[in-house]
Write a structure and sequence with these properties.
Elements lengths: L7 H7 L27 E6 L2 H9 L8 E4 L7 E4 L1 H4 L9 H7 L4 E3 L3 H18 L3 E5 L2 E5 L10 H16 L3 E6 L2 H10 L5 E3 L5 H6 L11 H9 L5 H5 L3 H8 L3 H7 L16 E12 L2 H22 L5 E8 L4 E7 L15 H15 L6 E9 L20 E3 L2
Parallel strand pairs: 2-4, 7-8, 9-13
Antiparallel strand pairs: 1-6, 1-7, 2-3, 5-6, 9-12, 10-11, 10-12
Helix pairs in contact: 5-6, 11-12, 13-14
The structure holds 2'-deoxycytidine-5'-triphosphate and magnesium ion.
Magnesium ion (MG) binds next to strand 1.
């Protein structure tokens, strides 16, 4: 989710048949739909400008104004931007200084994770009310399989509308939902009519929907892959669908099979309510190699900030910090530090605050100095995670992602 790209007006213009109706589990003649890959009814729910909306809800003075959640200092990054701020181009993961330049009236607000967690618990209760098959991806989004819903409502579209209403009633926040017959399409659909929107993609419509999309909207296609695809003449889903599997394998290796299916709107992954996350982390590749101790320390601080935010968002608690360095000759060096489990404490002993995480990270770097040569990449990971002590959410993993995500 971290690298989300928001181009709402363009997307809406590109595809608009999102009339509320339900994806049937079968074709008109009653036969199972090939493309539906198992007749599921999937909803993806994603809160609108989540952290920023919570702040606007709790402080009326912020309503209707451009708001960014995050630090405004030199090294700060925007975690969330209100829709008023997005009109100026402000978005998640943008350096705060850039955001301020784009929108001089931008109001920066410090994050309050307790409030976000509380809202997250409320929305999950709404989801669980309708189905036990809930796969949270982060505090503010989840996949739901409502093929057989608890209340026997039957219509996935109706359930999605009810969920949006219930969320609004319980949290005074708005959610967008996508309804379709697989996870890939449901997630694309929830993004389609944001904010406060609903979009339904029925069996048979997936391929046409995907054809219109810029390839950047395909989950997993980051800025680098985008550049490469454009060089190969692939700008949209239709361009991608026009390439055969041999071409895709030659150019994208193991990513090819996913791309081939995605370009046809096919995704067979089930909704998995209990995904086990092994680690949370992030890494940064530099445009110029770094060797000086001062620059290394500064970079580490940036990575600490971003990774800790990610840890909080994932509600993860872990015991081991790992520092990864990739040298200019591509050799990788990792060093780790752990807090020993404390047998007499029911909770064990976890790295529970940022200060401790930061201290352990700094110690790891100091122990590595001086480096034998400059590095091209630095990363931090928290692992040895809590498996359930703090509640149901600590061990969930983001969608189909590797546990570690690139920072940029
Ligand atoms: N978040 C973050 N850093 C990022 C991206 C997101 O801290 N790089 C946090 C803040 C967001 C929350 O996660 O409010 C949810 O992320 P989303 O990508 O769903 O973005 P929003 O909910 O803010 O906006 P949207 O309406 O586009 O979903
Ligand atoms: Mg969101």
């Amino acid at each position: 989710m971290g690298s989300k790209r928001k181009l709402f007006p363009a997307r809406r213009a590109a595809y608009s048949p999102c009339v509320p109706h339900d994806p049937p589990a079968t074709n008109d003649d009653g036969s199972p739909d090939e493309e539906s890959g198992g007749l599921r009814k999937i909803i993806h729910v994603d809160m609108d400008a989540f952290f920023a909306s919570v702040e606007q809800r709790d402080n009326p003075q912020l309503r209707g104004k451009p708001v960014a959640v995050g630090g405004s200092s030199g090294r700060g990054v925007v975690a969330a931007a209100s829709y008023e701020a997005r009109k100026f181009g402000v978005k998640s993961a943008m350096p705060s200084v850039t955001a301020k330049r784009l929108c001089p009236d931008l109001i920066f607000v410090k994050s309050r994770f307790d409030a976000y967690r509380e809202a997250s618990r409320q929305i999950r209760a709404v989801f669980e009310h309708h189905t036990p098959l809930v796969e949270p991806l982060s505090l503010d989004e989840a996949y739901l399989d409502v093929t057989e819903d608890r209340l026997g409502i039957g219509s996935a579209t109706r359930i999605a509308e009810l969920i949006r209403q219930e969320i609004r009633a319980k949290t005074q926040l708005t959610a967008s939902a996508g309804v379709s017959y697989n996870k890939f399409l449901a997630k694309l659909a929830s993004d389609q009519n944001k904010p406060d929107g609903l979009c339904v993609i029925r069996p048979g419509e997936g391929a046409a929907f995907v054809a219109t999309l810029p390839i950047r909207r395909f989950h997993g296609v980051g800025p680098k892959a985008e550049v490469k695809m454009k060089r190969l003449g692939i700008e949209t889903g239709a361009d991608l669908a026009g390439k055969d599997i041999a071409f895709l394998r030659a150019n994208f290796g193991s990513f090819a099979d996913y791309l081939f299916r995605a370009a046809r709107g096919i995704d067979l992954r089930p909704v998995r309510p209990h995904r086990i996350r092994k680690s949370v982390g992030g890494e940064r590749t530099f445009s110029q190699d770094i060797g000086a101790a001062g620059a290394l320390r500064d970079t580490l601080e940036e990575i600490i900030d971003i990774v800790w935010e990610r840890i909080e968002r994932a509600e993860a608690r872990g015991r081991t910090v790992t520092l990864k360095l990739k040298y200019t000759d591509f050799r990788i060096n990792t060093r780790a530090k752990s807090i020993p489990p404390r047998a007499h404490s029911p909770q064990g002993d976890w790295i529970e605050d940022k200060a401790r995480f930061a201290t352990m990270s700094r110690e790891l770097l100091e122990e590595a100095l001086p480096l034998p040569m400059p590095i091209r990449l630095m990363g931090l990971t928290l692992s040895n995670l809590d498996r359930g002590g703090s509640g149901q959410d600590g061990d969930r993993e983001p969608p189909g992602d590797t546990a570690q995500l690139s920072l940029l």
